[in-house]
Each structure stands twice: as structure tokens, then as C-alpha cells.
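Go through this fold for my students:
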Amino acid sequence: MIAKIKYLRNKKGISQEKLANALGDISQQSINKYENHKIEPDIQMLIKLADYFDTSVDFLIGHTNIEQTIDSLTEYHLTEKEISLVDSFRKMTPHQQDCIKELLLSFTEENQQSL
């Protein structure tokens, strides 16, 4: 879990101090201690961290590898083809996912322009 806080912070490109300021009621030193295995955040801080990074407490504590929170899939009624695409997408590296996202956006923009 500790490595995930540092990972998410680095991914967002922010310092420990900026994270501490954004969360409020916590010091940069506490963030440092979380990342260096000296203390563990309490449940309220885990929730604040998860909300700030738009992830789940389960991801922070290592119970899932799914970084982003996702809406309930039941409302989407995915087809087998869509489920297969989602499964494949989740197995990609973040860079590959970004490439796919850009490709999909370009198709969407092309469709919008042809209307």
C-alpha cells in the first residue's frame, strides 16, 4: 500500500508537501512516513487519499490491481464483445491504454465532423 501512495503521487506529478496541503490536517512528514513504511494511514486518511487520487481504498491497500474506480457495470449491460474488449484493455500498459484512448477519440471526432 505504501508504494501505491508514492506511485499515485508521482503519477500525478506532485510533491509530498502538495499532497499534504491538498488533503489538509496532515503534514508532509506524515506522507513521507507512509511512503517509507514508518506509519500506516488510518481509515479516514485512506478514504481521503482514495478520493484525492480517484481510486479505491482496496487499490491503496493492495486488495486489487484496478487503479481507477469504475461505475457499476450492471447498468451498462455489456455484450460479450464489449466485455472482451474491457478485459483486454485492463491487461495493457498505461501507455497502451492511452494510445487506445486517443485512437477512440479520433474516431469519435471524425464521426462528429461528418454529421
Summary: The chain has a mean pLDDT of 87. The chain has two domains: 2-60, 73-113. The radius of gyration is 18 Å.
